[in-house]
Every structure is written in structure tokens, then in C-alpha cells.
Amino acid sequence: MQLRIRIIDKVRTFINKIHHFIVLCDALRSYCKVIKKDYLKPDLDIVTRWNSTFLILEKFKRMRKELNFLICSNKYLEIAYLNDDK
What we know:
globular
């Protein structure tokens, strides 16, 4: 249970960083356009909406390849990315 909570927190942090930086959203949008895939803007979860956490996790899963590219092109995101540390 504790591991699940940590993973959800890491996804939240990661999505938060992308969501709040227009440059990162634009880079993600551009990459999606190049590979001809629909752009899914990262959304934040809302405490009062029970399914919002599920929705951000689902979108994260669907955009995994694109997010990996974004991380490779931006060292700022490596800190917040899911890894085995912590």
C-alpha cells in the first residue's frame, strides 16, 4: 500500500511540473505532432473528485512514450521522474 502511494505522489509531482511549464507542454505537443499521435495535456487531480487520480494515472500510462522523450530532452524533469530512488 505504501509503495502505491509513493508512486501516485511521484506521478503527481511529475505531471505538476509539466502542467505548470508552458515550454514543457509545448515540447510535448510538438513531439506528438511529429509522431502523429493525439496530444493529451497533463491534467492535475482534484481532491474532491474521486476519479481524478485514476484519470491522471491512466493518461500518464497512455503518454508514457511521449513523456520518456520529454525527459530525455529536458534534464529538469529527471528529478521528478519515476525511478527506484526514494
